[in-house]
Amino acid sequence: MKSSIGKNVTLTLYGESHGPAIGIIIDGLPAGIAIDHDFILNKLEKRKAKGKISTQRHEADEFKIISGVFNGFTCGTPLHIMIENTSTRSHDYHPELIRPSHADYVAHMKYHGFEDYRGGGHFSGRLTAPIVAAGAIALDILKKKGILIGTHIAQCQDLKDRNWQDLEKDIETCNSLEFSVLDEKVRQDMIDHIEKTALEKDSVGGILESCILHLPIGIGEPFFHSLESQLSAYLFSIPAVKGVEFGLGFDFVHYKGSEVNDAWQIDHGIISTMSNHNGGINGGISNGMPIIIKTIIKPTASIFKTQHTVNLKTMENDELTLQGRHDPAIFHRARVVVDSMIALALLDLCAEKYGTDWMRL
Amino acid sequence: MKSSIGKNVTLTLYGESHGPAIGIIIDGLPAGIAIDHDFILNKLEKRKAKGKISTQRHEADEFKIISGVFNGFTCGTPLHIMIENTSTRSHDYHPELIRPSHADYVAHMKYHGFEDYRGGGHFSGRLTAPIVAAGAIALDILKKKGILIGTHIAQCQDLKDRNWQDLEKDIETCNSLEFSVLDEKVRQDMIDHIEKTALEKDSVGGILESCILHLPIGIGEPFFHSLESQLSAYLFSIPAVKGVEFGLGFDFVHYKGSEVNDAWQIDHGIISTMSNHNGGINGGISNGMPIIIKTIIKPTASIFKTQHTVNLKTMENDELTLQGRHDPAIFHRARVVVDSMIALALLDLCAEKYGTDWMRL
Amino acid sequence: MKSSIGKNVTLTLYGESHGPAIGIIIDGLPAGIAIDHDFILNKLEKRKAKGKISTQRHEADEFKIISGVFNGFTCGTPLHIMIENTSTRSHDYHPELIRPSHADYVAHMKYHGFEDYRGGGHFSGRLTAPIVAAGAIALDILKKKGILIGTHIAQCQDLKDRNWQDLEKDIETCNSLEFSVLDEKVRQDMIDHIEKTALEKDSVGGILESCILHLPIGIGEPFFHSLESQLSAYLFSIPAVKGVEFGLGFDFVHYKGSEVNDAWQIDHGIISTMSNHNGGINGGISNGMPIIIKTIIKPTASIFKTQHTVNLKTMENDELTLQGRHDPAIFHRARVVVDSMIALALLDLCAEKYGTDWMRL
Amino acid sequence: MKSSIGKNVTLTLYGESHGPAIGIIIDGLPAGIAIDHDFILNKLEKRKAKGKISTQRHEADEFKIISGVFNGFTCGTPLHIMIENTSTRSHDYHPELIRPSHADYVAHMKYHGFEDYRGGGHFSGRLTAPIVAAGAIALDILKKKGILIGTHIAQCQDLKDRNWQDLEKDIETCNSLEFSVLDEKVRQDMIDHIEKTALEKDSVGGILESCILHLPIGIGEPFFHSLESQLSAYLFSIPAVKGVEFGLGFDFVHYKGSEVNDAWQIDHGIISTMSNHNGGINGGISNGMPIIIKTIIKPTASIFKTQHTVNLKTMENDELTLQGRHDPAIFHRARVVVDSMIALALLDLCAEKYGTDWMRL
Lengths: 361, 361, 361, 361
Known about the structure:
4 copies of one chain form a homotetramer.
Chain A: E1 4-5, E2 10-15, E3 21-27, H1 37-47, E4 63-67, E5 69-70, E6 73-74, E7 79-84, H2 104-110, H3 128-144, E8 148-156, E9 159-160, H4 167-176, H5 184-199, E10 206-213, H6 227-235, E11 241-246, H7 257-260, E12 264-267, E13 270-273, E14 281-282, E15 285-286, E16 291-297, E17 307-311, E18 316-320, H8 331-354
Antiparallel strand pairs in A: 1-2, 2-3, 3-7, 4-7, 5-6, 8-9, 8-10, 10-16, 11-16, 12-13, 14-15, 17-18
């Protein structure tokens, strides 16, 4: 269970950046779900590196469904999505020089020197492509159940997007945007800022804010399988995520209970909270309000500035100046990975409550 | 697997606040580990409500070991710790008035009206007592392996503790303190602030900062079982935790890659990072540096101010003025729960790498 | 996950024969299920030692529900059933003399000498009492869903019960009988044979044949979680079970495919098989026919004849003549344990397909 | 977790008989294990259909390692073995006529008519090829640890192989034989019998007897994860297995406790049993003696005789005369599948006790 997650809808991820292929197996989908290739492609497209603000490694990301789909519908057995590796330039990496803030050194130690170091091996961000393909299927299923998920870039350095307003509309906007900032001006400023950072051979990170709309009440368990526990386990699986918070999150420290308790109200028989500081979750369980999640994506570790490092061959201090193709920022690409992880976590939890057949009905 | 967590060292939690008993089962400890009752009591004592800054419900918290220990040593079979409920005043709660920011409403909906509402039932913070008892055993085992864990209260509203300095000594200080603030003056200010908040019938929250020292390199897995995923799943199991971050966490948003990358250095054959912005974790795996985790505990939901709510019987808007025994702050008590959850998560991960027998050798 | 089993309905077993208590936690039952104490007592009664054909250790087996039930209904949280140990005569056992075909020696080696050897410790057949209590709840839930389970003693040495005839009626008969043999004469012969064996200070085993009626089509998964895999994992958890087979089982060796293939037929729109040699399972999945399972319970290992053994203290060959209270046969008591394990396995599998809420609707 | 099994060494199986590929992912192998391609091929070869006693579908079974191996050694990440489907003749099957004793009907019902029916889809015996490839790796690792596994065909109809004699030598013989019968004459008789059965358009089954040698004491857990539970769960995952027994198994019914208890003896400090009726397992845990397992493989369901069936399109009784390529017996091919499943189950259990790094040291 090292590379698998999920009890009812189980994911198994495999592959190395410069091996023959990477992929994911989704197990637990009931038979009879229509698979929308274009929707998967659309999500993969949003994850892809593009323009000046991204790496110049352009993978085709052509996914193949190897099993689990028959005549366009899931057939009830494990669904295997494979993406072949085509654009691999292994000579770009110097395995003896461990890259700062990358997994090179821990991989070397954990795997006793047998790690596939080419292109970051299994630790490559490229592994998020199959996650996005699987996530697209999950997003599609949930959408048909009325559960909407969207993520905008809330902040990059001092640049802040506007807050959510009309949630349903904003989620739709997020999902249609290439660069998911709701405020048009901030969007352009952020793109400019990333381009400028790229020219400085540097990188930046960002805070992503996600919203889940219309999740039924009662999803999540007290304690060990709280909705926060489940969602955070999936979100911290994304490389570069270093923080996850719900509702006010760390801002709770500034307030008193009386300021941030979410009082209850009833209107035409519908119970809701007057505020949503808890981000739609009480006691680890969804309360019917929008689920609000923030995720920090740290600045890309690959920068073109010369950095101090250690040479594993000579075991001496050394310097590293990265060559190759790298992103000055990945948070805008990570956005669909976040959406995917949320959808996959929710699908598992919903299946627990409603059974796996629920997905197809 | 709703109330169980852990693959190699599995925890199962049960009990309701006003039922006969609450408890936890720890499964996976090898035989031959000495159980230190005093150490468990010491940790339970730190979790206990005390003085003006805590609830006036004083439970004896006398734990009994029902199974798994023979002649003072683990005997290899499931270790069951039970705490009987003695001080239960069920009339304090009005189940028809759902408490803001509590689990009353979600429990009512999730359990179709069959929930044990007395004292919060299974959602009571009291359930963290057996977690602390189990955590004490884990902390003790890890300590014998040289792995140290400590947590200080980093912030409560504007009051901030000093940063970590001498980690080993600071951790020891944390573990000896009743109210775990390293700076003596800030400690008293915080206590005063909580007392003042209590008089205002209000509550406050706080940020806890934990440090894990001497964790071996290589703990955690890429992606789904990253060290961050595992730790956050345990930490978000604690009621009132609404955010978890590692290293710089959300502060990463303010920096460029070149400012926060942790460059490598070697000294006398020992490889380490020159900074520790990643909090000791690269690619989801421990890198040998101290693991730094921040956790936000939101202000206690139970306040004595009158709040808006809904009456589930009349299905009308209503008001609630809580009676009974409540804490104006719980973060200082939650501190040992955080330590416990970290220790239990790490024990599980270490057992995966080294086998369960490792714990006793 | 050493002492836990089940994905949706999870069992966790704990306790030692001569410790303060033994028990089980059932996690995953939805709220709102009526708990029938008398039905549980009835099943525990059937498991109890009685008359000349059983041990003279008479435990009260008074179970207490510690959590998870409120006002007579499940409240959705872990259901903990505890049975206190009252009749413990620890001096009956000589831990230095390892009992043949018992777990004394493996426990000694596995637990490095720290095992609780008193009364067999965790290996005691007594641990099946909480399993039966949990099983009673599962049997009750399934029965309300129309799924019936019954087990008769098919064979003890040369004595063979008649085959199943009217399945629904036979299952009812089994469940009402103290000693579950359908043929009245064979029943008395078997009881006489056990009594005679007891006088000879010896023991016998038996084959139990179980039938599951009205299990919906489609339960079980291909390969790793086949219905046979799941059921056998639960059944082999019962001490003394050394074989499990489905349908014809090992007798398949005597036949050709044309003799034992189960041809399909349709009658008034209902598809069924003309024979049931596969015991209601094709490709690991229930096919709508009765599920037929055979389980062998070996002769009780505790006999009063003097046996060769090794003295762990002197590390020399020695002899052992058991004293104390032992059963000359346990298969008639194991019958309700088998029913319980089957019901618990099925509940888990049904919850996977239909969701946990299915149980209460 | 429908198509995955194993806690420490996790298998995930995917693929349909006539889809692009089938495969397996093994997760949990430590880095640094040499992968012996020839050994894997050797095992796949033994599983292959050959001669007159097997189907005429001849797959190349050319496996590709897609991930997890770098420069000939495991690199610590999920090891993905893929076998492309090349010889698919989809027109051989008439999906509207459900084949007796096959999974056609249950698949149709479970998957709501969306099943991939071509060549049995996911239920095809072909899926055992990747299991054998994974099993070969497990067998190789265990062998280097001194743990030997071998299986002979104990019985086919009235033809019985001789009993085990020199276990170490017999296991070696089994592993070198194409048709694993120890007695040369019985071997030829059995092959003749299968050929004769084939001419009669019929099929036969057989009993396989496996032996595990030098498994350390202490593997397996009491109750739910007993060695019998674990092994049987894996063995019943093999299509056509309808019974599993340990030691005397169902034959225990014929004996008294005094006849079949395994008395202990000590010789030069080594404790062993004087007999091995329990097949090396006491209380669910290995006791150091050879583990003896019997598995029944039922007669192949695919026979060329005309059979009664139902037409799913017309929903009327009909007849089926199979065309295509089928085996008159599969137990001789299933033998390496049994070896593989045993090895994979043991690897998981050993990793639990010793940690995953144990495999490479």
